[in-house]
Amino acid sequence: MDLAKQAKIVDSIHDTLDDFVGQRLKVRANMGRSKIIESEGVLMQVHPQLFIMEVDRKRGRTARQSYQYVDVLTGMVELSQNGEPLFEPFIPENDVLGADFTEMVEEDEEETVLS
Prior knowledge:
By secondary structure, the chain is an alpha+beta fold. It has one domain: Roll (SH3 type barrels), CATH 2.30.30. The protein contains three helices and six strands. Strands 4-3-2-1-5-6 form a six-stranded antiparallel β-sheet. The two termini are 35 Å apart.
């Protein structure tokens, strides 16, 4: 995916989230090393590069968390409302690692089968 296309998608994510300010959303964030954080809260603000959620914590407390639109683009952050995702995956699963990597794996598999 080229840079201009990514920029357009990031702008569309920003515009879409702007319509959800003040509404409750569920966030599922992949923090790496098999650590996934799920939380629910209110979308408080959208800024040019990030958005801010006020998420629920234990004992009625809340905390503010910020996420980047690029993380939504790459699938590291997933947003949903009432069980329905706000965004479909932007990058097809077979394209996440890139076409070159996929071709290398396929070639390796062919060599293994032939051996």
